[in-house]
Design brief:
CATH topology: UDP-N-acetylmuramoyl-L-alanine:D-glutamate ligase
Largest sheet: 8 strands, mixed
Helix content: 25-40%
Radius of gyration: 18 Å
Oligomer: single chain
Strand content: 15-25%
Length: 313
């Protein structure tokens, strides 16, 4: 039986939780043959990554997801509980295996291509969301990723709007970003990269100024806070009252996986603690840099003290 949760004292994170398998090449990649490198397997999934970062920052966090009845699912449960994520509402499926993400990285740690298998998330239906509507009703904020079906995203946003709970949405990929497009007016914060932002606002983004303009267009469409990540160029943001550009924090890149999830979680943390948006985004950039320097998808040393130690002034 799920434990009682404190009303208005937690963030509800909804979406993917699974296993990441990442291969980083030691040198130039050659198609059609094996390339020497390093392969690492760790827990992952956009929603799970965000929940992990939030929990490490001391935020009470509930994960609403689905995993398979398999060893990978058990690993997800074990690791999440070790960092303090509430897993009482995660569905365990006998039909599907736990979500899996396979990534190929070049020798600089940049993503070359990836394959994901998120079929278990078909278990997170609108009916399942409605069965757990009290979790939405009493949340301080909701974070969702677009691995969820269009109908499920619609159901979440409908309930969140009814209960006046702000929703932060991660577009997740260019293919999935379109699932958010009809709902921008009901999203509190959206966190696309450049390619995803181009899908959301039907424009081309080639430089910082165009990225800021795209963020403002997202705000004009109804989003309260729009952040667009620019990889090594940092991140831009816009609200109804302000916009800006935060440069990336210089770091040695080990693995780019999970950096944007750390950014999202840290900005959510800042907003919950009434930290001004500019400083919240700076803290997010600090979290992204710490994650880029880690081989794990989430930086195990993440803390508020670490964020401020790496803060770009």
């Amino acid at each position: 039986m799920a434990e009682e949760v404190s009303s208005q004292n937690y963030v509800l994170v909804i979406g993917a939780a699974g296993i990441d398998s990442k291969g980083k090449a030691d040198g130039p990649l050659t198609l059609g043959t094996s390339t020497p490198g390093r392969v690492r397997v760790s827990v992952g999934g956009v929603a799970r990554n965000v929940a992990d970062n939030l929990a490490r920052l001391g935020v009470e966090t509930i994960l609403l997801s689905a995993v398979g009845e398999d060893g990978s699912g058990k690993r997800v449960f074990t690791q999440a509980r070790e960092v303090g994520i509430n897993m009482d509402y995660v569905l365990v499926s006998k039909e599907y295996h736990t979500s899996a993400y396979l990534a190929l990285l070049d020798n600089q740690g940049n993503l070359v291509m990836s394959v994901d298998d998120m079929r278990v998330l078909s278990c997170i239906t609108p009916e399942f969301i409605n069965q757990n509507r009290d979790l939405i009703r009493h949340a301080r904020m909701i974070v969702l990723d677009s691995n969820l079906s269009e109908k499920t995203i619609r159901a979440i946003l409908k309930l969140a709007n009814r209960y006046r709970v702000p929703v932060c949405a991660d577009p997740t990929s260019t293919i999935l970003a379109k699932r958010l497009k009809p709902h921008l007016a009901n999203i509190y914060m959206v966190t696309p990269n450049v390619a995803e932002a181009e899908v959301l606002v039907d424009c081309s983004i080639t430089d910082e100024d165009e990225a800021v303009a795209a963020a403002r267009r997202l705000v004009a469409a109804g989003v309260e806070i729009a952040m667009i990540t620019l990889a090594e160029e940092g991140v831009v943001y816009a609200t109804a009252d302000a916009s800006g550009h935060i440069p990336a924090v210089a770091t040695d890149i080990v693995d780019t996986t999970g950096a944007s999830d750390a950014l999202t979680a840290t900005v959510v943390f800042g907003l919950l603690n009434e930290i001004p948006i500019d400083e919240s985004v700076r803290l997010g950039a600090s979290a992204a840099a710490l994650t880029l320097a880690c081989s794990d998808t989430v930086c195990v040393d993440l803390s508020l003290e670490q964020l401020y130690d790496h803060l770009l002034i």
